[in-house]
Amino acid sequence: MKKPGHSWKPISPIAWVTRIVSIAATAALVACSVPMQSFAQESAQLKLHYGVVPWTGGTNNDALGQAASGATVPMSTYVQIATKDGNPYIGVIVGGDPMIAGPAPVTLHAVVIPLVIQIVGTSVTTFDPTKANSCDGGVSAVTRFKQSPLVVARSLSFNKVVTGTDQFINGFMRAQFWAEIGGASTYSNPINWSFASAITMQFPAPGLGIVDGSGCNQVGIISQPWLDAQLQVFIPVWQAAGLISTTKLAVFLMENVVGSSATPPTTSACCIGGYHGAVGSPVQTYSPMDYDTSGRFGATHDIGIPTHEIGEWMNDPLGNNPTPAWGHIGQTSGCQGNFEVGDPLSGTNMPAITMSGYVYHPQELAFFSWFFNNKTTASVGTGGKFSAHGTFKGPSQPCPPGGTF
Questions:
Q1: Are 137 and 39 in contact (CB under 8 A)?
Q2: For the segment 7-44, what is each residue's pLDDT rounded down to a tens digit?
Q3: For the whole model, what pTM was predicted?
Q4: pLDDT single digits (tens) 230-274
Q5: Cβ distance 262 to 43 under 8 Å?
Q6: E-strand spans in 176-267?
Q7: What Cα–Cα distance (Å) separates residue 365 from each residue in 110, 314, 337, 385?
Q8: Residue 282 has what DSSP assignment?
Q9: Cα 296 to Cα 43, 267, 284, distances in angstroms
Q10: Cβ–Cβ contacts within 10 Å for residue 108, how many?
């Protein structure tokens, strides 16, 4: 996803206290560019994919310096000589450095800001992650998220290797670097989660938002470029008001709302389930994401999209970590060359996890070795596999097909 431009001016912190962002589109602006144990299948399935907004506010060294001074989330760097092509690759990950002996545990911080999305036409359709969802056992998306393995630590295993009692993403990070850390508990990056009051955003229909389906299958589809433009405008305002901080990942949690790459939004240019981005200096990392109960995206529902995005934030917080080219797998029909651990396995789930009587479906994620190793180099991930549940038994293949590493 390319970083969109914008022309909106931020509201004052005093006006922000109402926590209502009303996107009042003029005609000219619109013309310029809009426990759930079963899932109903009445409406047409929609194709899900994900995006990233790379940081343009400085260099990797700038971000690492900010992290070292405590101005942003903790980050580490790595230099990996890829056995695929013999070239060095330099990247930045969140948390401690798994490549050094005896890495110290690092506590991370994140804040969840519920986004109440109102699509305003002849009537108003509201998608509110803070309200009880009658299609999901009368429980809100925020509560489901709070009770999920993304927030609550539990015993985890990856490729039949017990990695410890951790939050899911922390367990995944340990699993993908298992041989590097020797299974040591000192490499640990738990997230301390906080939850803010909701923000309401209005999207005029059909220029910036549309509603598709009905009943429990209903989804809101909004202009993703417009959403990101607004978030980047208001992030400094919300920082000044104390809602978010550069020292915390800002998760903008929606319920049954996805993005369209087109403005006005369409079902054919749909659906962006979530993305992660970085903006400003010191760098603010953020990620809008859908908690889905609509059943419109095949195997992906509940924490599938949040797992994808939080996992990618941990491994590529600035959105610019390079890898040897890979592709024609997962959501990627062409070639891609970045360390996005969710994209190659979009739509592929881990074994379900039951917590608080609810069945969660985290997405499977690709291991570090899948991106950098050739077919004769062993994976450092659990079980010698190349993904969290062993779907990838070998590393990525050349892209385009027929190429060589």
A1: no
A2: 333 333 323 333 345 444 433 333 333 333 344 445 89
A3: 0.91
A4: 999 999 999 999 999 999 999 999 999 999 999 999 999 999 999
A5: no
A6: 191-195, 199-204, 209-212, 219-223, 249-255, 257-260
A7: 20, 12, 16, 12
A8: T
A9: 7, 12, 31
A10: 22
